[in-house]
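Q: Give me the 3D complex with flavin-adenine dinucleotide.
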Amino acid sequence: MLRSILLYLSNKEAPKKIIMGQPLGRRMAARFIAGEELEDGLRVVRRLNAEGFTVTLDLLGESVQGAAEAEAACQAYVRLLDRLAADGLNSHVSLKLTQLGLAIEEGLACRHLNMICECAAKHQNFVRVDMEGSAFTEATLRVFRKVNAPRQVAGIAIQSYLYRSQKDVEELLKGGTRIRLVKGAYQEPPDIAYQRKRDVDRSYARLTETLLGSGIYHAIATHDERLITATQNYARAHNISPERYEFQLLYGIRRDLQRGLLRQGERVRVYVPYGRHWYPYFMRRLAERPANLFFLLRNLFRD
Ligand SMILES: Cc1cc2nc3c(=O)[nH]c(=O)nc-3n(C[C@H](O)[C@H](O)[C@H](O)COP(=O)(O)OP(=O)(O)OC[C@H]3O[C@@H](n4cnc5c(N)ncnc54)[C@H](O)[C@@H]3O)c2cc1C
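A: Here is the predicted complex, encoded as structure tokens.
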């Protein structure tokens, strides 16, 4: 219930103004976001690299409504890839296709993703396409396939809460695609998505086995210790060494677990968001864990 309300509010302007205008809102968001500027993101990458983590940097932004804004996001990603290469940092980039214009025109998102992938190929880097709400699943997969096929410098996120994901995974594996498996962060109806955590987790475990068995390098992206342990057990039982997959976790969430996995010899990539459009990302993180919201409210009233 609370999750639904928070996800509903994540698209609304009024709460956005209140939370983004509150010093406490910004302080809370800082737990999950590297900062508002490129330099903030790069500073965090440098620190995480020094600790042994790899990174994927996300310039926050989504649901862009104007072509100029989509073009600006595309240019920002090209500059980001150039800068990562110039600074010798070990970081991929993650992006959302609605940030590149998918909600305006599919061709626009295609052209922008293509430019970013060309730049990534030049630097031998990698682009991860995040998966958004189900209104964009089909179009995201279509654009991804069209752009990625010639050079394979991109991978895509797949959500275990969607019934369709097993089929999507099987199709993507035929093309050798690298997948990031997530549970899914949006509000989806019961005719297309599992509603109970137990079912989402079961689907996640099944998809993990399909991915690990494929021989392709994938990312298991979760903070769920039970699923992480199940992944490790499956890998061990099938002689799949830790170099053949990686775990991914979000910046600011379960840092103890992130470090623990590194100590166990696992590959760990941290998803680091930065930028000014942090509100929807922040709300999704609150929705995942109501305790975060209660902390925010308690301190709001105290301020
Ligand atoms: C690297 C990465 C990339 C992602 N990319 C996408 C994407 O492209 N599309 C998409 O829909 N979703 C994406 N997600 C989000 C994902 O779908 C889930 O919403 C999110 O990871 C929470 O689910 P969980 O797997 O951690 O399991 P859960 O069962 O939700 O959580 C397991 C445990 O992790 C901790 N935890 C989880 N979330 C939080 C939080 N916000 N604050 C504090 N503790 C928390 C808690 O201890 C919790 O008990 C991504 C997640 C990761 C890690």
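A quick observation: The two ends are 27 Å apart (CA to CA).
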